[in-house]
Amino acid sequence: MNADWKNRYEVAITTAKEAGQLAMGYFDTNLAVEWKQDLTPVTVADRQAEELIRKRLLSSFPNDGFLGEEFGNTPGTSGFRWIIDPIDGTRNYVRGIPLWATLIGLEYREEQILGVADVPAMSQTYRALRGEGAFRNDRRIHVSKVSDLSQAMMFYSSLSWFIKAGRQDAFLELAGRVQRQRGFGDFYGFVLVAQGSGELMMEHGTHAWDLAAIKPIVEEAGGRFSNWEGQCNIYRPDVLVSNGVLHEETLAILREK
User: Fold this and answer.
1) DSSP-based three-state secondary structure for 25
2) Residue 58 and residue 56: Cα distance in Å, rounded?
3) Half-sphere exposure of residue 104: CA atoms within 13 angstroms, side-chain side
4) What is the pTM assigned to this prediction?
């Protein structure tokens, strides 16, 4: 195992858990919510958690770059860049819904090489390092082997995103072909696919900090990650994650509609 990667992986896990516990201290309390220009919520917990993550990671690896949702980009010189979301699922967080996570991703020369998703309200940590497999806590996880779309479980964020993208017909077509659909948005639908609890997760309106940690987890679990055109890109707003077996069939439906 690459020592530089391993050291960063271990620090990322510890840091995600620490930031998650900080956010837990504010969770389900009478927390003031501000609204950003893009009409997404932000709280003091988001800002403090990102500040903690930035401090921990850059004190350990001062030459690394850093991109966070709340405070933007800091260039580095090492070839590594951290991409983090202190609270992925802030809408859930501010409504007292426990499906939110602290996400820490790392890319090296633009390849996403590790991801950590700490889910403190559920005492779960999803993690992966390129070439070392994906885990939920200490349990190895893997995508399902379901090969028939009619037997598949599909996750999604919100129908409104598909309407905004002009893809509501594709969404309804897929919803009619799969066995079940569940509205598990944000990080949660992705990790459910990674652990074999479903076969498809579709999302629109994402940013790099939503996906940098997710991509290694999904791929190390044996799944596939792409945008809706089949390209492997965390910088697009459209994303499809699957167990791999059903990916091309799903992309074809998205293209048709």
Assistant:
1) coil
2) 6
3) 32
4) 0.96
Report DSSP letters for 10-31, one per residue.
HHHHHHHHHHHHHHHTTTTS--
Phi, psi of 110 (to 5 degrees): 75, 5
CA atoms within 13 A on the CB side of 75: 1
Tokens for 8?
Answer: 């960063």
Place of tokens 């569940």: 182
Q: What are the structure tokens assigned to 20, written together?
A: 């998650």
Q: What angle do CA 69, 216, 106 make, to 5 degrees?
A: 45
| pLDDT at residue 255 in the model | 87
Which residues contact residue 110 at a Cβ distance below 8 angstroms, ignoring those fewer than 6 apart?
A: none
Give the C-alpha separation, 104 to 9, whole Å: 10
Radius of gyration of the chain (CA): 17
Unique residue bearing structure tokens 């639908």: 189
Which ranges of 25-99 does DSSP label H, i.e. alpha helix? 44-60, 90-94
The burial of 249, by beta-carbon neighbours within 10 Å (0-12 exposed, 13-18 middle, 19 or more buried), is given as middle
Write out pLDDT tens, residues 152-168.
999 998 889 889 888 89
Which 3 state secondary structure label does DSSP give 235?
Answer: coil
First to last CA, the chain: 44
Residue that the structure tokens 């993208």 belong to: 165
pLDDT in tens, 54-91: 999 999 999 999 999 999 899 999 999 999 999 999 99
